[in-house]
Amino acid sequence: MVNLAKELNGNAYPGRGIVIGTSADGKYAVTAYFIMGRSENSRNRVFVTEGEGIRTEAFDPAKLEDPSLIIYAPVRVRGNYTIVTNGDQTDTVYDLMEAGQSFEESLRTREFEPDAPNYTPRISGLMHIEDGKYDISMSILKSDHNDPSTCLRFTYTYEKPAAGKGYFIHTYMQDGNPLPSYEGEPTEVAIEGDIDTFTNTIWDALNADNKVSLFTRFIDISTGKYETRIVNKNQ
């Protein structure tokens, strides 16, 4: 298990990232989702609340160039499930789970993003809280080392996640051209403090030039009630 701030400090461009885990006191299911950007189009975004979830929105609509891969709902809630992803596959998971498919089955209808030459991975997470029980699923769909001829599909499930532990998955290993896709299992990271400490730890550790927006949520495992924080670089 690694220190989350150090993990972020050591990477100028992890891209988009999802953290899912459990608070140090074991009372809360915890998640975070952040976006970063190198282009003006990617940086021209904010998170806004939509229902029980969030969506991305152009900070300056006049500067919006191509909305196809940057405007989407990263977080949606379906009953006892909270879905967190880095693209419009949030809607795919929501709709197909509604139709009776599993998290993994729903994502088999999708693959990495068509943004050659990067072929950005689609990363997704699912938090299931019911009757005081909590489990986590995470997924990454990626090209084979930037070869778009095949899609590599990985799903990870964590039953009864331990207090103080989180799982961190992001789109890129580091900055580069093309950007190298994330490799390996989700990184085990320590989750410390309350929601404000957690939020500030991530936001302060993200590269100052490239960070764009951050969403965090603490969900009470016993009651399902939650607290949310949203931080936008564009104010």
Could you explain how this protein is built, in words?
- This protein has helices spanning 4-9, 40-43, 89-98, 103-107, 195-205, and strands at 17-22, 28-36, 45-50, 53-58, 75-78, 81-85, 122-130, 133-144, 147-159, 165-170, 187-190, 211-220, 226-232.
- The model has no long low-confidence stretch (mean pLDDT 97).
- The radius of gyration is 16 Å and the shape is globular.
- The strands form 3 sheets. The protein has a 6-stranded antiparallel sheet with strand order 11-10-1-2-12-13, with helices on one face. A 5-stranded antiparallel sheet has the order 5-6-7-8-9.
- The chain is 15% helix and 41% strand.
- It contains 5 helices and 13 strands.
- It has a single domain, classed as Glutamine Phosphoribosylpyrophosphate, subunit 1, domain 1.
- It is of the alpha+beta class and 235 residues long.
Question: What attributes characterize this protein structure?
Answer:
235 residues, alpha+beta, Glutamine Phosphoribosylpyrophosphate, subunit 1, domain 1, five-stranded antiparallel sheet
Give the topology, please.
Elements: H1 4-9, E1 17-22, E2 28-36, H2 40-43, E3 45-50, E4 53-58, E5 75-78, E6 81-85, H3 89-98, H4 103-107, E7 122-130, E8 133-144, E9 147-159, E10 165-170, E11 187-190, H5 195-205, E12 211-220, E13 226-232
Antiparallel strand pairs: 1-2, 1-10, 2-12, 3-4, 5-6, 6-7, 7-8, 8-9, 10-11, 12-13
